[in-house]
Amino acid sequence: MEICVLVKQVPSTDKVQIDEETGTMIRSELESELNPLDMYAVEEAVRIKENTPQTKITVVTMGPSSAEYALKEAISMGCDEGVLLTDRKFAGADTLATAYTLTQYLKDKQYDIIFAGERATDGETGQVGPSVGTQLDIPILTYVNKIINITNDTITVQRAVEGGNEIIQTQLPALITVVKEINEPRLPNLENKLKAKKSIIKIVSNQELKIEEEKLGLKGSPTRVVKVFYPKISRNGEKVVVKTPQEALEKITSFLKEKGVIS
Amino acid sequence: MIEYRKVTTTTVEKLRKILKNDALLIYDDTESLKSYSNDESGGEYYANMPEVVVKPETKEQISQIIKLANNEMIPITPRGAGSGLAGADIPIFGGIVISLERMNKIIEIDSENLVAVVEPGVVTNDLCRIVSEKGLYYAGYPMSVETSFIGGNVATNAGGSKVIKYGNTAHHILGLEMVMPDGEIVEYGGKRRKDSSGYNLLQLFIGSEGTLGIFTKIYVNLIPQPGKVVDLLVPFESVEKAISNVAPLMVETKSLPSGIEFIDKKSIYYASKYTGMKLPYQDEVESYLIVQYEATSLQEIEELYEKGGKALQKNGAKDVFIADNRSNSEKIWRMRRNWLESLKAVDPYVPTGDVVVPTSKIPEMMKYINEVSNEFKIDIPVAGHAADGNLHPAPLKPKNLPPNEWKTLSEEILGKIAMKAAQMGGAISGEHGVGFIKKELLKKTKPKQYKWMQEVKEAFDPNNIMNPGKLF
Amino acid sequence: MNQEYKGVWTIAEVNDGKIETVSYELLSWGKDLATKLNVELSSVVISNKAENLDSLIQHGADNVYYVEDEKLEHFYPDVHTNILKKMVEDFKPEIILASATTKGRTLMPALAAKLNTGLTADCTDFEIEEKTRSLIQIRPAIGGNVMAKIKTITKPQMATVRPKSKLPLAKDENRKGKITKIKYDEELYQSKYRWIEFKKDKTSVQPLQQADVIVAGGKGLKKSENFKYLQNLSKKLKGAVGATRAVVDMGWIDYSHQVGLSGKTVSPKLYIAIGISGAVQHLAGMSSSKYIIAINKDPEAPIFKVSDLGIVCDALDILPLLEKEIKSGDKND
Q1: B149 and B132 co-located in one domain
Q2: How far apart are CA B353 and CA B344, in angstroms?
Q3: Domain around A132
Q4: Is residue C207 in some structural domain?
Q5: CB contact under 8 A, B276 and C222
Q6: Can you tell me the distance from the alpha carbon of B25 to that of B3, in angstroms, rounded to the nearest whole number?
Q7: A56–chain B nearest CA distance, Å
Q8: SMART domains attached here (chain A) (predicted)?
Q9: How many structural domains comprise chain B?
Q10: Which residues contact C23 (CB under 8 A, 6 or more apart)?
Q11: Is B320 in the A-facing interface, judged by CB distances under 8 Å?
């Protein structure tokens, strides 16, 4: 079986500084890491490999050259090889342009399953996975929390949707985005870590992909960030140190009545 | 024995006048007073009610309160976050509890001199976070950073997981402003890094557990942030194998980890139940080490974990897992950090031992703890800071045993273990302090030193107003 | 060149024939935009059955396009995408809004890819740029640390909208509109998916993101058993149970209840945070709730910075009382 995992490198901090003038992230001082939600996709792929002989996992990302570390992290968890799509021309891509570039790389490969995380912890759009699947014209299974069965040409999964779980089957190849509850990603051990360190990441630039420039990066992105601003989150609420549970109950009840939550 | 007087309504009126704000005083309100009656040392077993609680906001208020207490012969118990494990902040004679919760300002972060000046009620975790935003690092890292105050860390000379590389709290304190037992306000040390003018009284107050005065300002040493951190999770088939790796790891790799933590199978069992997570090889191994390295560059950190990991593998580690990002680090540390909480889920008042031995003696110490566990037929999970020989045995109460019997029994068990540690060239407390729970052990294991400690105490506090019943 | 694109569309969600509340919320946003642009507002329903389509009109729609076929019983991304692609090509709306539910967040990226247009995820607010009549899409980014204003330079302009970010308009029984039933060729309904079954989640009365009230718990609950108080309380308030990452990681409650950066983002009318200190990651997922009540024993807990009512006390002291004493808001009970 041939498996591909799409990953992203994200800043490894919650404290992201924004240049309010230009609306861009101040990346200079930022450490980056493999998107935590992508680890579940990697783990699921590795588990399939462990149960299915002759499975090969390729992990693919689009990003700056430093994104190599995210790929190596995935390799240390058990992926076989890493591919980095990197080119100055790719920079500034929104979800559609990113998905387009990834698709152009993936379209002539023969993957049975393409995995992706539910979303990245920085952009939080969750759009690239489904967009890639659609552009490749293969079925998309989003919010998967359990893989029930895989045959030669079908896959049956459980999806976490509003109010419960849906079980659905589709044909392979398919693109699958997984949620956190699907598994517990493994810790890489020293041996795999060293192997990953030595692994050679395949670098693919636009010289190879030959995508017309109007479809790449900022030029190929139909959405534009017009402005970025800091929201005001603090409220001037009331804070009471209560002496008895009864007092707390009274406070809460009268608040709920005032706001019309209870009668 | 000094006769203390009770807090009267007149005393309370005087206190109100000093504080000028009724919100800073608790009196006549049993529910509220109760939360100042104990700490994390053993819950209800050791609790005692204060007569009045004050929450001063300035050193002048503290000074006046202490003068008042001297005049009226009322005992004072200083209190930080209440996360102590030896009962040092329990008001065993009632009297006045001075809670430092309102003295919680970070006064200054001096990036030029690499010093932070803070009030005692600052949560150590907040200090760490705020200085890290400036690329700086407070290396004193007690494991309870999420709750404990820096003042309490200084009062107990807290340790934590990074002592092997950075030293305990005493190594990070450059100066203290204190209200002395007679109410006088005095500064010891400051932003200077050297001082050979006279006795080093500064070090005397670190670890004095509130018996020699109250800190009102703390000068904390900062260092540049290491930037890169890697954690190694290392399972071992036996406790001996794990422990026997600690010293050689440092010798063979010629590099100091920032920490080597130890956790045994029983602890893993409870922590796993509590956190709902599983570590690799959990059912097959007897113990784990968590080795942490810090460095400034990626290359340096990679070299460190490769060298360290290989040494551990060569010396019998079942495997070596590497975490060099936040998600994986969190996985490795979650069980260790939730250790005490997971035991409290089984036994809410679990007492925690705090013995320290020379690092080479840890295997012997572990063996002894095991013997005691068998002798008393009591489950004793152990976790600790292996790199500095500091172990925390935590005997769990058998379900059917009545609490009062358990108090006596658990004190006997921990007493035995502590005495053994002292005999091995260790001490009865590594980082939690003596409080009042371990004062008998202190007297037994350091009889001559104890006498001199008493002399010091009397010289500073002849009325025995400051935190009486602790240490002595 | 995009002149021919006109009108605002919202994608209604239908579950077993019943129109979901999020559909009305979308109409409320849509009405705003359609009024500013002086265009018609249409709601698209794709289903095998649908009750009371008039209610969409009564809540603000000028048109309802109802694509009905027995094959549309379940949500198959390929079929729904193909239908919508065809409709957009035929009717050319300038704006399409869908709810940021699992359905919306699956369908919309697929549709945007097919139409080769832009899509903005999980918006919480919209504006119309007067000069250009462009849709300004406002969404939180980077864990709610910042807000971004985003514009789409292609047509249609597409966005998913965070549930509960706007109240539905009051129902107007006299409002008139047009319901158009649409049938497409069989081949459009051919799917690569096969539906098997749906397993209902029993712990919550309703899905987290659609709940008006969320009662959420953190480590202050001390142990997993104490979530039973939250479950009972949330049932009485017709709400759902939320949780922090810490307690989900500890296995106290399922991941489906997790609120925050690596969980769900919610904006209920009322969020009750019990024993939650309020790590930035958690706040990112709930700080846009209309009202927030926080119960925590640490007076300095960051959760109090975002709360309208903060109660400083141990959650476990008051939970039993709260669970017992709070009465249901439903007068018919």
Answers
A1: yes
A2: 14
A3: 2-219
A4: no
A5: no
A6: 25
A7: 23
A8: ETF (SM00893)
A9: 3
A10: C10, C12, C13, C14, C43, C56, C99
A11: yes
Check whether residue C153 and residue C221 sit in a common domain.
Answer: no
Domain that holds residue B359: 349-431
Q: Do B31 and A193 touch (CB under 8 A)?
A: no
Angle between helices B59-72 and B9-19 (to 10 degrees): 160
Q: Look up the CATH number of the domain holding residue C220.
A: 3.40.50.1220
- Alpha helices in B112-245, H assignment, sequence order: 124-132, 150-156, 163-166, 201-205, 239-244
Of C222, C249, C300, the CB nearest to B275: C249
Give C138→chain A minimum CA distance, Å. 9
- Give yes or no: residues C56 and C121 share one domain: yes
Two tokens at A85? 């799509």
Domain with B145 in it: what CATH number? Answer: 3.30.465.10
Half-sphere exposure of C24 (CA within 13 A, CB side): 19
Q: Is B334 on the interface with C (CB under 8 A)?
A: yes
Q: How far apart are CA B15 and CA B99, in angstroms?
A: 14
Instruction: From first to last of the 472 residues of chain B, give the pLDDT tens digit.
Output: 578 999 999 999 999 999 998 889 999 888 788 889 988 887 678 899 999 999 999 999 999 999 999 999 999 999 999 889 899 999 999 999 999 999 999 999 999 999 999 999 998 988 988 898 888 999 987 776 567 899 999 999 999 889 999 999 999 999 999 999 999 999 999 999 999 999 999 999 999 999 999 999 999 999 998 888 999 999 999 988 998 899 889 989 999 999 999 999 999 999 998 888 889 999 999 999 999 999 988 889 999 999 999 999 999 999 999 998 888 988 898 888 889 888 988 888 889 999 999 988 998 999 999 999 999 999 999 999 999 999 999 999 998 888 889 989 999 999 999 999 999 999 999 999 999 999 999 999 999 999 999 999 999 999 999 999 999 9
Residue of chain B whose alpha carbon sits nearest to that of A29: B135
Q: Do C184 and C277 belong to one domain?
A: no
The tokens of C151 are what?
Answer: 């514009």
Q: What are phi and psi of A176, to 5 degrees?
A: -125, 125
Q: Which residues of C156-187 are buried (b: 16+ CB within 10 A; e: fewer)?
A: bbbbbbbbbbbebbeeeeeeebebeebeeeee
| Rounded distance between C-alpha atoms, residue A50 and residue C27, angstroms | 49
C: neighbours with 3+ CB pairs under 8 Å? A, B
Q: Which two structure tokens, joined as six digits, stand for B32?
A: 């509220």
| Burial (0-12, 13-18, 19+ Cβ within 10 Å), B128 | middle
Q: Do residue B277 and residue C249 have CB atoms under 8 angstroms apart?
A: yes
Task: Give the number of residues written for chain C.
Answer: 333
Q: Which CATH number fits the domain that encloses residue B244?
A: 3.30.70.2190
Go through B322-351 and write b for each residue having 16 or more CB atoms within 10 A of its CB, e for each that does not: bbbbebbbebbbbbbbbbbebbbbebebbb
**Contact: A160, C150; criterion CB under 8 Å:** no
ipTM exceeding the 0.95 mark: no
Chains that touch B (3 or more CB pairs under 8 A): A, C
Closest Cα to residue C107, out of C128, C133, C88?
Answer: C88
Distance from CA of B205 to the nearest CA of A (A): 34
Q: Domain range holding C64?
A: 8-189
Q: Is the CB of residue A40 less than 8 Å from the CB of residue C262? A: no
Indicate the number of domains in chain C: 2
Q: Tokens representing C255?
A: 């991941």
